[in-house]
Amino acid sequence: MRSFVALVAGLLFALGLGISGMSDPAKVISFLDVTGAWDPSLAFVMGGAIGVHFFAARWAARRQKPVLDSKFHLPKGATVDAKLLIGAALFGIGWGIAGYCPGPALVAVAGFDRAPLTFVGAMVASMAAFHLGKAALTKQT
Fold this sequence. Notes:
The protein has helices spanning 2-20, 25-32, 41-61, 82-98, 102-109, 114-140. By secondary structure, it is mainly α. It has one domain (2-140). Helix 1 packs across helix 5 (102-109), helix 2 (25-32) crosses helix 4 (82-98) and helix 5 packs across helix 6. The mean pLDDT is 90.
């Protein structure tokens, strides 16, 4: 049942990203270009998502446990460190340059266009390189 619900939620999320234009890099870049030809339409998408999350989070906080799990899996720490700041900066720079972030890029791959396929390939290669480098550093210490 959990896998089915996860599949439906993922498909609904992908559909929303596609319909809203979040998987169109030109639309995203024009949204981020606040000093040029700014397109504010994605602000409504983000506002809608924030609104849904606001109420869903409050509903979930009143529950003893999730509907389909035995406990909530929440982050243990809230430390803002260099690793978090560097990662956020890299994410933002990449999003601004390419017009893709991971979720919308995966949605765009369904169109078999070269740009999102290249982006997702580079993203997967970067993640693999990070984990291999981290594993190598861990072995040295």
